[in-house]
Amino acid sequence: MTTATARLLPRARRFLRRRTRVLLLLAGWSLLESAHTFLGGYGLAKALDQGFLAGHTGVGLAWLGVTALAVVVGGLAGRGVFRGLADLVEPLRDSLIRQVVSRSLTQAVAHPARAADSAVVSRLTNQTEIARDSFAGLVLVARSFVFTAAGAVLGLLSLAPQLLLIVVPPLAAGLLLFLATLRPMAARQRAFLQADEDLSTQFGAVAEGLRDVVACGAQQQTAARAYGLIEDEARAARQLARWAAVRCLALGLAGQLPILLLLVSAPWLLRQGLTPGVVLGALAYLTQSLLPALHTLMNALGSAGTRLVVVLDRLTNGPDSGPGPDPDPESTTVPHPKTTIAPDPETTIAPDPESTTAPDPTTPQDPAPLVPVPPGGPGVHLRAVTFAYGPAAQPVLHDLDLTVEPGEHLVVVGPSGIGKSTLTALVAGLLAPGHGEIRVAGRPVRARSGPDPSLLRVLIPQQAYVFSGTLRENLLYLCPDGASASALEASSDAVGLDPLVRRLGGLDAPLDPGVLSQGERQLIALGRAHLSPAPLVLLDEATCHLDPAAEMRAERAFAERPGTLIVVAHRITSARRADRILVLDGVRATCGTHDELLERSALYRDLAGSWQPDALPAPEAPEAPECAERISAKSRYLS
C-alpha cells in the first residue's frame, strides 16, 4: 500500500459510510443488471444440450428467450445504476472544489504579499474533473466486475467445476502482473501531474513578469526554462506510456490465454464426459462476460485508479504531500545583466518576478560596449511617435514629439489609461512605435547592432521585481561590474532602505520575496535602480505603495543622482518636484512647470484639485528651462 493510499483510506471510508443508502441501492440495481450474466452461459448450454442437439427446437428457443429477457431486464436496471452513480460521484466533486477553494483562500489571507498560486487553476478544472471521472469509472467498473464475476463463476460451477482449473491459473497470473504495475504507474502519474502543475505555474508567472524580465534582458534564459518544463512533462508522459505497455501484456495474459486454453483442451473435456453445450457455455462466460469485465477493470485500475489516488492525494493533502520533488517557487535562474541581449518583446517569455534565483555578482563578465553618454545623462528624443495596440485599434499615442534634455527630471501625469505607462515602455524599448522614431543618447532605442542600448536605461514598474537570494544580490543585479560597499550604503541610505536592511539582518541576509510587502519590494527595486550605472531611470508609478514621506525621499534621491529621470506620478507633490511636467490629456500633450500648467492646462488644474494634499510640503521646484522649444505635442490618446 502506498503512502498516498494509506492517507486516503480513512477519508474514503468516512465518505462511503455517510452514503450507505446510496451504496445499497446501487448494489440492488447492479444485481438485477447482472442477472443476464449467469443466464448467458447457462441458458446457452441448456439450449444446445436439452434443445437443439436433442431435437427439441422449442426447448432450445425457450432457453434462448429466457436469456434474451434477462438482457432486457438488465438494460432497464442500468438506468437505476447511473442514477445511483450520480448520487455518489457529484458530492465528491463538490467536496473537492470546496477544499481547493478554501485552502487557496486561506493561503492568500495568510500570505497576502505572496503571488497567487497559478496551479490552483489546474486543480479546480483539470484535476477535479479527473477525480470525478476516475471515481465514477471505478465505481461503475468495480461493481460491474464483482457481480459479473459472481455470476460467471456460479455459472461455471453449475456447468462443470473442472472448468475452473483451466480458466483460473492464467487469470491469476495476469492479475498478479497487473497489480505489480500499479505502484510504479501511480508514481509516474504523480510525476506527470507535478509536471503539468509546474508548467501551469510557469506560464502564469510568464504573463505576470513579462515586462520586468524583458527590461532586464532575461528572455533567453526564461524561454529555456519554459521549454525545459515542457520537456519534463513530455518525459513523464513517455514513462507513463511504458508502464501502460506492461499493463497491456498483463491484459493479454489474463484475457486471451484462458480462451486459448479452453479451445485447446476442448477435445479432452469432451472425452471426460462434458457435453458440447457445456463447453460452448463456458466459452460464452469467458468471451461475453468474465474476460470483458476483467479487461475493463484492469484498464480502469491501471489508468483511472492511479490517477484517482494521485489526484485525490494532491487535492486533499496539497501538492507538498507527495513523495516526488515539488517545484521550488523561487528557484528559477536569472541571468546576470551583463550577459543579456537587447529586449525583443516579440520573442520573449518571462519568469515569475518573485520566483528567481539571484545571479552571482562576483562572476567575472566580459565588458559590454557602452553607448557614449553626455556628462549630464542621455537625452531622450521622440519624433512623430504613434503607437496602437493592434492594427485596427485607436492610437494610444499619435504624432507625439518630445525632447527630454540630458540630466532633466520630467514627470508624466494624466488620467488612468491615457498612455503614461505606454510612453515609458516605448522609451525603455519594450514596445516598438508603429510610426516615428525614439532615440536615447542619439541612438535608436531598439538598435539591433552596435552597443547594447538597454544598458543605458533602467525601468522600475509598479510591480517591483525582487528575487530570492540575498539583499546584496538584489541590489547588485543591475551592476555588471559590481559596486563598492560605500556605493551600496550610499544608495541604500539615499532611497530610505536602511531600516529594511536592519530588519532583514543586513545586506547578506537571505531574502524571501513572499514575505515582503509591496512597499518593501518597491524600496529594494528603487535601491537597485539608484545603484545601477544606467544614466536614464524610468519610474512607472514605482513609489505608489510608499507613503508620502518615503516617496519624497526616494524621488529626491533620484533627482540628485546624476542622469536623466522620467517619472510617472500619482501624487501632486511628485509633479511639483520635477523640472517639467508632461500632461497627457487625451487630445494633446502639454508641457511646463507646475505654475505654468495651472494656467495653460484645464486637465492639470482638475488633477491638481482632485489630488489629496499631502501632509509634507513639496519643495520649491527648481527653475525649469523653457519647454516651448523642446516639445511640440500633437496627441490623440485612447483612455
From TrEMBL:
InterPro entries reported for this sequence: AAA+_ATPase, ABC1_TM_dom, ABC1_TM_sf, ABC_transporter-like_ATP-bd, P-loop_NTPase, Type_1_exporter
Localization per record: Cell membrane
Molecular function GO terms recorded: ABC-type transporter activity; ATP binding; ATP hydrolysis activity; ATPase-coupled lipid transmembrane transporter activity
Record-given protein name: ABC transporter ATP-binding protein
Region (Disordered): 315-373, 614-639
Span of domain ABC transmembrane type-1: 24-292
Record's bilayer topology term: Multi-pass membrane protein
Biological source species: Streptomyces nigrescens
Main location, first listed in the record: membrane
Sequence ranges assigned to domain ABC transporter in this UniProt record: 380-610
Biased composition (Pro residues): 361-373
Record keywords, A-Z: ATP-binding, Membrane, Nucleotide-binding, Transmembrane, Transmembrane helix
